[in-house]
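Tutorial sheet, problem 5. The four components below are modelled jointly, 226 residues in total.
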Amino acid sequence: MTSPHSHRTSVATAKRTLPSDQVVGSMAETFKVLGDPNRLRIVIALTQTELCTLDIARTLGMSESAVSHQLRLLKALRLVRQRKEGKLVLSSLDDEHIEDLLRIGRRHATEAA
Amino acid sequence: MTSPHSHRTSVATAKRTLPSDQVVGSMAETFKVLGDPNRLRIVIALTQTELCTLDIARTLGMSESAVSHQLRLLKALRLVRQRKEGKLVLSSLDDEHIEDLLRIGRRHATEAA
DNA sequence: CATACGATTGAACGATTGTTCAATCGTAAT
DNA sequence: ATTACGATTGAACAATCGTTCAATCGTATG
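Model answer (structure tokens):
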């Protein structure tokens, strides 16, 4: 025989640790937006410099349109901020936490499998 | 007139900062797996205790099958580890970086919009 | 004003996603 | 051996995703 196991108490304990649906949903959205390679590349590129939409497109080999669509998402989730300069729209990171996420995510990704 | 802008140099600079496709892809996978509310809840629940598949299902109100599918993904990406005990499969977090990601992600998510 | 350039928009498309469902496997207990 | 329980699997489905394409907007420059 192995150690006894009570489903009841485990479930009750685990349930207590969960944040509200709203918080979980918001966290998931944040991670999800970083979960696409092109969007992630955009964010990484912006850790160095402010860039206009076209430069991002050229840097990543994406269409201007695709970049614009993604920037709108990134802005909506407060990862990216934008300012206008003439006919350019310059994008930059909006939040200092983002670079932390990138750093840790990269560490996990490049660890020995 | 505003400040002059050279696309050429901005693109060249930005390109240098980008990790390889392989690294970016792996990072994106890591974020993506945390980008689903149910999967994220599973991971959060496991920060506290080791849990069997059924307990996770009961805690989150998911079917056993759905949980099992997601655990396989989490295991493949090395977020979750599993050990057997009798007929139970106990899951726990596989990597200490994960909790850091959760903490920072939560901070960003709960910041004032 | 007309032109060019950078940016945005919305519809449409194929591709991917997460779940359900039913069937099956494995282990422990009777 | 049979039963019960926990876990896994694969097919199938609706839903969501990210891109392309064409059209349009805005602003600076000729």
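Marking note: Chain B has a mean pLDDT of 94. Full credit if you identified this.
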